[in-house]
Each structure stands twice: as structure tokens, then as C-alpha cells.
Amino acid sequence: MTKRQVHLAAHIPGVNNTTIWSAPDAGSQIDFESFEHFSANAEKGFFDYLFLAEGLRLREHKGRIHDLDVVGRPNTLAVLTAIAAITEHIGLVGTLSATFNEPEELARQLATLDHLSGGRAGWNVVTSSDEFHGANFRRGGFLEHSQRYERAAEFVTTAKELWNGWAADAIVADKATGRFLAPDSVHPTSHHGDHFDVEGFFDVPASPQRHPVIVQAGDSSDGRDFAAAHAEVIFSRHGEFAEGQAFYADVKGRLADRGRSEDSLKILPGATFVIGDSDEDARQTARETSLAQVSPQTAIAFVEQIWGRDLSAYDADGPLPDIEPATDVTLSRGRVRHENPAAVAKAWRERAEADHLSIRELVVALSGRQSFIGTASGIAADIDRHVQERASDGFVIVGATNPHGLDEFVEKVVPELQERGVYRTSYEPGATLRENLELPPLVAGATSLQQHEVAR
């Protein structure tokens, strides 16, 4: 029986405590040489795509810029366009908000990136509804939380209508007259919905993929429904084997009702790694890495986000605070908020007491970033098991440093996967991101449901 192939993406390190910015080999998040090294190495390892997150406002903690954000947040599309010029095969996926953008403008930008890269563009669709981020935009924080996926669905639908406005052969080349439009090859978009009114001709010709690959990361019931209807890749947080299998079965089980086949959606959880000469060596390195990722200051700040209080007087190597979280938790802004801080605090106390954990040890346990720990061959076997037994279709690999965090994985784990016969040894015959991900081809002008029916 043919083994299922492993798909890998490479997450460019961002502003969080996964990345160890104090490491001797840590580089800049702004200098292009960092992106140049990272992308060249990922392409050397035959990764499907690069993945770049985006922040629309610097986070704040206790009224000051959060320490991990001081390096800044470069513009996603500008960085990916620059990377397109120095790479040949690897996909270019950027996180772009469906709340604080407009369909026509973003559709133009993504179609242009798809042209410039030869069909390698992807869009990680995210939703935002909070006033803090909204304050940086004309509309402000106008969007009700319940409407975020409603708007996102209409946003993606509108963008597809724009992309479908051009026939693939709309531009005809003629030696005598040059290039011209074939008759009736471009059709106007006329979209009138609850969130968008768009009327007119789209001004970018059909790009190599027609649509960029749609990526999504939502995990709520609404998020899973959105993924089943629109996404082609899910950036999942369910990297543990049993949780991964349950998530995989749930989301892929929703596809048939939407006329989609299982292979029309790839599920790639985020994953980190620590490689050692032996399992014990890897575990020791993992412990050291975790402590570098979670300094005492980081641990206190992490807990303050739940308690909503200044806890700087507490010892990070001591127990959790014995006071209750503040009623109005506003100490940290720009992060995902917990719906019930009191319940979270209760659960953390129970775990800390049961496992005899200090504040820092608890934060390490809660935010532990090492998904795969072991020898290169052991990690490859574990990744292969996840894919063969449908806990995932592969992983989005996140290194602990920028830009060298991926180097060891490419050097040691990729050959082991290739030796197992589950990972490509070249980008042939694929040319576009959609082809490299083994996604069904798109049909010009077809609706989402028709696309999947054709693919089947």
C-alpha cells in the first residue's frame, strides 16, 4: 500500500516566547538577511511553504510595549514579495485579517503575489474583532465578536468572485498586434451582502493558481465550519496524537456535506522540535530550551495576563498567587483573552498543587514548545506515525531561533523522512503551491461546491 506523504511548512519565528532572541545565533526580525537565510534553508528542505504571522498592533503589558514586541512587526506582503524574488519553489503564505482589510484591495495584492511568484501565494485568513486592534484602523473596534466568521466567510466569497472575473485565457498574445483581451473574457463582479458591496471589473488577470491557497487556524465550532467550507489548509494547535486524531476526524468529517473530498483539505498542526544524539540528550536540551524560552520575567507576565494584577512582587520560583484574578482583566492588551480568568486560575492552581510546580515551572508546562523530542530518526518516525494514522497531514515546523532554528531539522530529520519514503526529494513535478500540497485543481468560474465536485 502506498504510504501517505508528509507535508511540511516552515513558520518564520515571530514575537512570542517560542523564539529565543537572547541566543548567540539569533538574528534580526527586520533585516532581510534573516528572511533570506530562513527561506533558502526551507527550500533546501523541500518544504511546501513558508508561513509568516502578522500583528496589527504592538501588544501592551501594564501600559508598556510588551518586551517580546520591541523588534517590530514587518509588513507580511512586503516580506513575502521580497522572498518570492530569491526563491523558486517554496510557497509563500501570509496571515492577513479579514476584519481590517477590504476584499478588492487584498484580492489584488494576493493575485499580484501569485503572479510574481509563479503561483506560490497563500492566505492565512484570520479574524479580529477587538477594539484594541481596531483602534489602529478607520472603523475602529466596530465588529461584534459573533460576526467575525460571518464577515470572514463573505470576505473570502467576495475575493473568489473577483478572482473568477477573468478567464484563464483572457489575455491573447499575437505577434502582430501584441497582447489584447479576448472578447467576453472578463466579467464584472456584482456582490451585495451584509458586509460588502463590490461592483465592477477586477483589474488583475487570472493568476497561475487562480486563487491563492486558503489557510485558516480557527478552532471553535464556527471556526471548524468555516474551515470545512473555505479552507484548504488548517494551521491546527492539536499536535498531540490523540487530540490530533479527534480534530482530524471532526473537521474532515464535515467536508462531505459541503461536497468536498478528504484530500481537498490538509491539516498541519504547529510543532517544534529538539534533536539529540540520544533521547536523554534531547530531553536535557529540551529542559534548557524551555528555561531559555520562559525567563522569570516572562513567567510572571504570563500569569499576570490571567490575574489582571501586578504580580512583580511574587517569586517566579514560588507558588501561584493566593489572591483571585481581578474582575476586569485589562493588564495585558493585544493578546487572546480567556473567557473566564477565575476558572483558568483555579485549573492552574490544581495542576500546580498536584505536580508541585512553581510559577515558572507551571508556565513551562503550559507553554512548553517542544512537540518532538528525540533523535532525528525517532522524530521522523513520530511525524510519519501522525500522518499515516491520520492525526495530521504533516506539520508547520517552528524553530527556537531566528533565522537558524530550522537548520538542524533540514539537515537531520528531512533525510530520515526521505529514507522512509514519505517525503519528497525534489519539487518536481509540482510548480504551484496548490500542486505541491497535492490539492485538487481549481476550475475557472466554478463555485466552491462545484470546484470540489469537479475534483471528485
Write up what this structure looks like.
The protein has 456 residues and is of the alpha/beta class. The protein has two domains: 7-277 and 369-455, Luciferase-like domain (TIM Barrel); 295-366, no CATH class. 37% of the residues lie in helices and 15% in strands. It is built from 15 helices and 17 strands. An eight-stranded parallel beta barrel has the order 1-2-5-6-11-12-13-17, surrounded by five helices. A three-stranded antiparallel β-sheet has the order 4-3-15. Strand 11 (213-216), helix 6 (221-230) and strand 12 (233-236) form a beta-alpha-beta unit. Helix 9 packs across helix 11. The longest helix is centred in the middle third of the chain and has 16 residues, at 148-163. 41% of the residues are buried.
General form? globular
Which oligomeric form is depicted? single chain
How much strand?
15-25%
CATH class bucket of the largest domain: Alpha Beta
Low-pLDDT residue intervals, each spanning 5 or more residues: 445-456
Number of separate helices: 15
CATH-level-2 architecture of the largest domain: Alpha-Beta Barrel
| First-to-last CA distance | 21 Å
Please sum up the structure shown.
The protein has helices at 32-44, 76-86, 103-117, 131-134, 148-163, 221-230, 241-253, 279-293, 296-307, 341-355, 359-366, 376-388, 407-419, 433-436, 448-455; strands at residues 7-11, 49-52, 60-61, 64-65, 91-97, 121-126, 171-174, 178-181, 189-192, 197-200, 213-216, 233-236, 266-271, 273-275, 332-333, 372-374, 394-398. With 456 residues, the protein is of the alpha/beta class. It has 2 domains: 7-277 and 369-455, TIM Barrel; 295-366, no CATH class.
